[in-house]
Specification:
The protein is of the alpha+beta class and 153 residues long. Helices cover 39% and strands 23% of the residues. The chain contains five helices and five strands. The protein has helices at residues 2-14, 24-35, 57-78, 107-110, 117-125, and strands at residues 41-44, 83-90, 93-100, 128-134, 140-147. The protein has a five-stranded mixed sheet with strand order 1-2-3-5-4, covered by helices on one side. Strand 4 and strand 5 form a beta hairpin. Helix 2 packs parallel to helix 3. The longest helix is centred in the middle third of the chain and has 22 residues, at 57-78. The two termini are 29 Å apart.
Length: 153
């Protein structure tokens, strides 16, 4: 399953005329299943309409890499027992929220430049904002908001 998943994305990225992109919601759900193997999660896409927000290959790549990094952090560092994911859009506005009930991050650690650096870089590449809410022993909530209008194709 992992091999087919990876091969599909590599094929789409390197030869878009041959490999058709999978619906982003389907792709993200499969990715969550592969990463959050032993962590229960919910994935709410009830406020996402695939046709409203066409994603260019580069935007799709940055969104997927942001998502993958955030879920990997939940799996590796959060020590959580549940993850809540929500993807929504309105016109060209896209919102991705990922929340866990784990150990959170101390404010001192959050202020360090390297903490969540990759997620911040991906949000910048999407010309979006990243809201981070955390408390020790109360989990972590990431909210990425991006206006996809005018991003490269």
């Amino acid at each position: 399953k992992e091999c087919l998943f990876g091969l599909r994305e590599v094929l789409h990225t390197t030869a878009p005329r041959i490999g058709r992109a999978q619906n982003i919601v389907t792709y993200m759900k499969e990715l969550a299943e592969l990463i959050l193997v032993d962590i229960p999660y919910t994935f709410d896409t009830s406020q996402y309409t695939h046709d409203k927000t066409p994603l260019s290959p580069s935007v799709r790549k940055d969104l997927i890499l942001f998502f993958k990094e955030a879920l990997t952090n939940c799996q590796t560092h959060a020590q959580c027992s549940h993850v809540r994911i929500a993807l929504s859009n309105r016109d060209t506005e896209l919102t991705l929220m990922i929340e866990d009930n784990g150990i959170g991050i101390t404010s001192e650690k959050l202020e360090r430049p390297r903490t969540l650096r990759t997620l911040k870089q991906r949000a910048d590449r999407l010309k979006g904002s990243l809201e981070i809410n955390t408390e020790t022993d109360a989990g972590l909530k990431l909210k990425l908001e991006a206006n996809l209008n005018g991003l490269d194709s």
